[in-house]
Request: fold
Amino acid sequence: MNTNWTKYAISQIEADYTRSADTHLIQLPLPYFKDIDIYFKDESTHPTGSLKHRLARSLFLYALCNGWINENTPVIESSSGSTAVSEAYFARLLGLRFIAVMAKSTAKEKIKQIEFYGGECHLVDCTTQIYSESEKLAKELNGHYMDQFTFAERATDWRGNNNIAERIFSQMSKERFPVPSWLVMSPGTGGTSATIGRYIRYQGQDSKLLVVDPEHSVFYDYYKTGNAGLQNTQGSKIEGIGRPRVEPSFISGVIDEMLKVTDAKSIEAMLWLSEQLGRKVGPSTGTNFVGVLKLAERMKQANEKGSIVTLLCDSGERYLNSYYDENWRKSRIEHDKNYMTYLQSISKT
Reply:
C-alpha cells in the first residue's frame, strides 16, 4: 500500500475541514411557546449542503486509516442521495472514482449534484436493492463499498473532537436555557443519533434524545420490540431518513424516546417551517419539527421551561421538483388539513 498517498489523502481532507466554518444555530421565535426556546442546527450550509457532509468526511478518514482505500480504489456507496453527494465531493478531492447506488425515485436535483462532483449514479428499482447491488459492484470493480449504514456510528468520534453534539452544546452556552431539555432528530443510518446520544451520556448532560421515525421505516418498531430482523418491503417517502431494515449503525440504547411521524405531517411541517424561516427546508427537517412541537406542547402543558434543539438537515432547493411541487405531492402524500390548521394557530399567537 502507498502510505505516502494515504498521508496525502488524509491531509487533503483535513485541509478541507480547516477551510470550513461551523454551521449556524438558528432560533425560531414562537410566542405560543413563550417559555420554550426552539433551535435548528443548520447543516445545509456545509460545502455539499447537508448533514451528510460530516458523515462522508468521517467515513473517508475511517476507510483511509483502515487501509481500505488507495489511490486506485473505486468507492461505491448505497445512498438515497445526500450521503452520495457528499461522498462524491470527497472522492473528487482525492481523485477517486465514485459510484452511488440509489433508487430511481431519488430527487433529480441530488442526482445532478452527484454528477456535478464527478460521481456516477447506478439506479435500481427499489430502495431494498441498494445493499446487494453495492456489494456486487464493489466486487466486480475491486472497489470499496463504503457502507454508511454499517460504519456511520463507529466512524464518528462521539466523545468530542468537534462533532455535531459537542458543537450544539458549545453554541448553546450563552442562551437562556443553555442545556437543552431535548435534542430531536430523525434516523437515516442511525449514526448521528448514536453520536448525540453517546455524547450526552459521556458528558453527563441532563438532556434527553427524541428520535422521530417516518412511515414505512422499521426503526420505531425495533426500538419498541427489540426485533433486529424487522423488514419492510416499502421504502420511506421522506427522502434521506427511515429504513426498510434495522441498520447496524442504529443504536437504540442511547435513545430516550421515539415517535412515529406520518408523511403528511412531515410535509405540512416542512412547508410551514419554510415560511417561518424565509427559506426552503428539506422534508426530513419537517419530520424533525413535528417531534419538536410534540415535545413543546408537552412541556407547555406541564409548565416546564427549557430549550429544544433539532437539525435543519438540508435545503429544500434539492426538492423543487418533488416535495415542493404541488402535483407531485398530491399524487404521493396525503394532505393533513388538521395539522396545517394547528400550525397556523401557533403562528398567530
Q: What stands out?
A: Strands lie at 25-28, 36-42, 75-78, 98-103, 120-124, 144-145, 182-185, 208-214, 257-261, 306-312. The chain has a mean pLDDT of 94. The first strand starts at residue 25 and ends at 28. The chain is about 45% helix and 15% strand.
